[in-house]
Amino acid sequence: MELILTGISYVRREKAILSDVSATVPGTGLTCLLGTNGAGKTTLLRILSGELKSTSGQYYFGDIDASTLSQRELAKYFAIIPQNAPIPPYLTVREMVRLGQFQPRSFFKRNMDRTKQKNIDTYLARCQIEKFGDRRLDELSGGEQKRAWLALGLASDRKFLMLDETLDGMDVFAKRRFFQLLKDIAFEDKGIFLTSHDLELVSEFTDKIIVLNDGNVIYEGIPDSNLQTLLSDNPD
After folding, report:
1. Which of 10, 12, 134, 193 is packed most tightly, with the most Cβ within 10 A?
2. Domain ranges, ordered by start, for the chain
3. If you write DSSP's letter for every residue of 166-186 in order, what string do you get?
4. DSSP state, residue 225
């Protein structure tokens, strides 16, 4: 199931932040929304998640008009890892990942069944943080915390994962390992939509890129050797 954007615009205080954005995010694979600071990347993700309403335009999951859905209804399709996500105090990694499987109707159930518990162990292992399961989040490094958030996203079992500049604060080696992990997960029938401005890693790992400049789509397709020139010719 693809995510299809058609003519999305957003105006704030008489300034156009996004202008007629149309693009397609595949339901499988790693897609990157690329652009320099101020290009409109975070605004677009906030619209897709339902946090903001576009001034005009629609977006669809298959034949479902997602632009008419509430933020709660959209949460059935998206797991979102925001930029600079706060660290929940006193929670261990395992406890936080369990929140991804929270269901309001089962709130008063005291114990999680063995299948779900096993799944959590699988998510921790998949994100290479199984040895940190019983440690508090604030005891982990920045890269390890990002992996914990990713495990939470996997535990929620949504079709799309959206990550907003999640690699900020990592060193170059941690960024590369995280990109490889995202690539592997996306290969397993998951759509991942990542915002970034790291051209080198994006070109190496992503399956598709959408380039925004000043709120406009200036490129959509596979990573291209001319991207650096394209971005240099279209500064914010």
Report:
1. 193
2. 1-77+160-170+179-236, 85-157
3. TTTT--HHHHHHHHHHHHHHH
4. T
> How is residue 38 annotated by DSSP?
T
Q: pTM for this structure?
A: 0.85
Q: Specify the residue for token string 């790693």.
A: 30
How does strand 216-221 pair with strand 64-65? unpaired
Tokens of 72: 């709660």
**Cα gap 182→185, rounded to integer Å:** 5
Q: Between 3.30.70.270, 3.40.50.300, 3.30.70.260, 1.10.287.110, what CATH number should domain 1-77+160-170+179-236 receive?
A: 3.40.50.300
Sign of CA dihedral 182, 183, 188, 190: positive
Q: What is the pLDDT of residues 45-96, one digit of tens each?
A: 999 989 999 999 999 998 899 999 998 898 888 888 877 777 777 899 999 9
